[in-house]
Write a sequence for this structure.
């Protein structure tokens, strides 16, 4: 079995963390029996931590040969060791160089994948560039920032496989991007700095799904939140939700804590960094390279986790219950590609509505939350069109 | 006043770091007088359950303490007396530790809330009506965390760093957080 990990003896701690996460993943538990991946080889390129490990185990239980790889900064060595002890192939170590990370991804592709679940579309793009698509039926992509380049490729006619936009499933982005990322990025920044949020000024660049969540959780803990935007509707929305909206350069001198939540490179430039006061802290909740410009950071200013997304690189990632939803979508996407991928055009596709809704309903059931159903009179009203 | 905010943030940080769970949507019973903590939790989307009738005016759900504990996913300020009431999977936060760095080396004193690091917190009830010091889980006395403590005579099982599990009966297990982690 394929394995290149840092320390197999860390297995027990990894298994403990995987088991603790499993307790709060009812949706993934409920769908295991619905998947049939017998004889398929599935590549996983997700942040390697206890929740995604449960996705790997779920796909294995559904009959797949699973190969996991992950860049060094997002690899938990104990979880890698635990997965190997459970018979999952893992190529990931926290001490790998960027060259080695790339070699891991190439090695995974050369194994001959049926389906790939990617994060940031790094490996989908690598497979195109290196002509290693082989018999790949299709890929599922987890993030906003990974889908953007794939859509550009599709527009140019360069995308050669169907891609399911896991990120764009409502049971993913309405909860993962907003609540999961919001809570976990704010808490990671506090854990790393010891900053007291009550009375502090927190600047959030970008008021998309992630920015809304970061702003909400920072405010919940007592911060005064300032939002910056480039898009008029997002800016107005932030204004109506009670946040101050200002240009970033204007907000920097007041900031104790700055989050970039845009997923766009060069959001926080050197000029912005210079406008911060000593003691200010900058964190990334988006997660593309150069979101905070690398290079000389002014004295007294701290960029957390070397500018990588702070919840994934310097904490345990998104909360368990949220990843239950996102990873259930991933599992259904992988299964859907196996069943239907060969009939799908090489383009970025949404997950079929019924699969997305199934995840939401399973979560509601696990929570014991009941819904009303429209009455006959309501259905008649709605059907009248008046 | 500001100490309450500090304690609240510190407690929320520790709970979320130890568990990796989401606060939004959790039913959280807050036992004892922790208004800042309750407000923060509510703002994070928790359904806070409090016994003080005036808390209803601040958006909390008011329930008798026993009912709150029986409904809760998380119990803050939990004592041994609550054990028979807890749901399967409930998470117990024994008492909100004081803010600031713990004073190392100070042994816990008799009658203190279970699980603190030795500083009296002034809130929460000590375990055991007779004022006997509870046999704390590891972490209370500086041993490596999670080697298993004892709760109401039950042996604890290490779950992961800072979390000890106690089996209360068939199909009923609760988890105690070591807030000094
Ligand atoms: N850390 C995590 O765990 C995690 C989880 C989910 C998503 N993400 C990432 O977070 C990023 C944002 O995701 P999203 O779903 O919120 O996307 P989104 O498209 O909904 O939001 C991005 C927002 O940023 C704004 N923006 C762009 N450039 C800006 C600038 N220079 N200044 C201010 N605002 C600017 C846009 O107008 C938009 O409103 C993506 O990179 C995504 O992949 C990270």
């Amino acid at each position: 079995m394929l394995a290149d990990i840092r320390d197999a003896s860390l297995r027990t701690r990894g298994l403990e963390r995987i088991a603790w996460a499993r307790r709060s993943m009812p949706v993934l538990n409920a769908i295991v029996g619905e998947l049939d991946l017998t004889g398929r080889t599935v590549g996983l390129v997700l942040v390697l931590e206890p929740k995604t490990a449960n996705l790997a185990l779920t796909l294995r239980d559904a009959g797949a040969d699973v190969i996991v790889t992950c860049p060094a900064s997002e690899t938990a060595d104990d979880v890698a060791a635990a997965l190997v002890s459970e018979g999952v192939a893992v190529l990931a170590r926290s001490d790998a160089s960027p060259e080695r990370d790339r070699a891991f991804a190439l090695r995974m592709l050369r194994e001959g994948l049926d389906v790939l679940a990617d994060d940031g579309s790094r490996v989908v793009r690598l497979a195109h560039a290196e002509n290693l698509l082989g018999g790949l039926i299709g890929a599922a992509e987890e993030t906003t920032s990974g889908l953007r380049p794939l859509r550009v490729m599709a527009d140019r006619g360069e995308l050669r496989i169907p891609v399911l936009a896991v990120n764009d499933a409502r049971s993913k982005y309405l909860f993962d991007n907003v609540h999961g990322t919001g809570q976990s990025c704010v808490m990671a920044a506090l854990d790393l700095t010891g900053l007291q949020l009550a009375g502090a000024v927190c600047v959030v660049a970008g008021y998309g799904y992630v920015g809304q969540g970061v702003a909400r959780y920072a405010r919940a803990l007592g911060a005064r939140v300032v939002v910056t935007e480039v898009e008029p509707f997002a800016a107005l929305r932030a204004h109506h939700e009670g946040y101050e909206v200002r240009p970033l350069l204007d907000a920097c001198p007041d900031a104790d804590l700055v989050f970039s939540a845009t997923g766009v490179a060069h959001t926080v430039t050197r000029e912005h960094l210079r406008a911060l006061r000593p003691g200010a802290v900058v964190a990334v909740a988006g997660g593309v390279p150069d979101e905070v410009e690398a290079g000389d950071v002014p004295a007294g200013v701290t960029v957390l986790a070397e500018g990588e997304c702070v919840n994934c690189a310097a904490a345990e990632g998104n909360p368990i219950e949220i990843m239950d939803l996102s990873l259930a979508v991933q599992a259904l996407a992988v299964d859907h590609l196996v069943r239907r991928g060969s009939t799908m055009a090489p383009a970025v596709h949404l997950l079929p509505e019924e699969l997305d809704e199934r995840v939401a309903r399973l979560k509601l059931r696990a929570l014991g939350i009941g819904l009303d159903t429209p009455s006959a009179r309501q259905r008649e009203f709605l059907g009248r069109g008046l | 006043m500001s100490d309450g905010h500090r304690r609240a943030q510190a407690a929320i940080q520790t709970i979320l770091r130890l568990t990796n769970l989401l606060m939004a949507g959790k039913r959280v019973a807050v036992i004892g007088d922790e208004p800042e903590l309750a407000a923060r939790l509510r703002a994070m989307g928790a359904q806070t359950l409090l016994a003080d009738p005036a808390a209803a005016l601040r958006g909390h759900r008011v329930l008798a303490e026993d009912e709150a504990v029986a409904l809760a996913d998380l119990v803050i300020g939990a004592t041994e007396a609550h054990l028979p009431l807890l749901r399967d999977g409930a998470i117990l936060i024994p008492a909100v530790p004081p803010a600031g760095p713990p004073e190392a080396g100070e042994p816990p004193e008799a009658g203190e809330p279970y699980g603190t690091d030795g500083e009296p917190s002034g809130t929460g009830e000590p375990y055991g009506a007779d004022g006997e010091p509870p046999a704390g889980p590891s972490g209370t006395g500086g041993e490596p965390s999670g080697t298993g403590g004892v709760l109401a005579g039950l042996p604890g099982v290490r779950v992961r760093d800072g979390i000890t599990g106690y089996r209360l009966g068939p199909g009923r297990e609760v988890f105690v957080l070591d807030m000094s982690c």
Summary: The first helix of chain B runs from residue 2 to 19. Strands of chain B lie at 27-30, 47-50, 61-62, 74-76, 91-93, 150-151, 154-155, 157-160, 163-169, 172-177.
